[in-house]
Specification:
about 180 residues, Rieske Iron-sulfur Protein, 10 strands, alpha+beta, 3-stranded antiparallel sheet, about 25% helix
Length: about 180
Amino acid sequence: MKKTKIDDIVQLFDFRQITGRAGSGSRAYLNIKTICIIAMILVMLAILVLEAAAAAGKTDKTQSSGDVSYPISIFDDGKAHHFAYKTSDGVDVRYFVIKSSDGVIRAAFDTCVVCWREGKGYFQKDDTMVCKNCGKRFKSTKINDVTGGCNPAPLSRKVENGKVVIKAESFLEGKQLFAFSGGR
């Protein structure tokens, strides 16, 4: 029988020697093996939950008036950078900017026209943006190209003079996606 990593772990806590039982079918051996498997599953789940929670609350910057511009160099890491734009009436319009794997700077509201009421947005997993509400995944290369449904709602942007520029009017176009009743 092939020895597994679980067997190596269980061997560290080998109660067969303590109980005097030698078979792999002993109750103590099976209980320790089960506990180790459950512990590893719980650790993996905790890592996934913490990763999603960290991505959920991360906003790089909030700006409250006028056009917004960023040096394109800050997006060279290929990571989605999350921002918020506060409108004159206090609505936080959340968005992200990413340099996709094809080298294009893309911008989108941090919501979609389907799940916007949940107010959850997206997090990045490798080369995809994942909806925090429904779990659907969207390739970074399709942001701004594919619209509607649960795709990230596109945000107009320009790249000029080494900067990504987003006009104030563009934020107002998506404001209704963030104007939650109940103070979200």
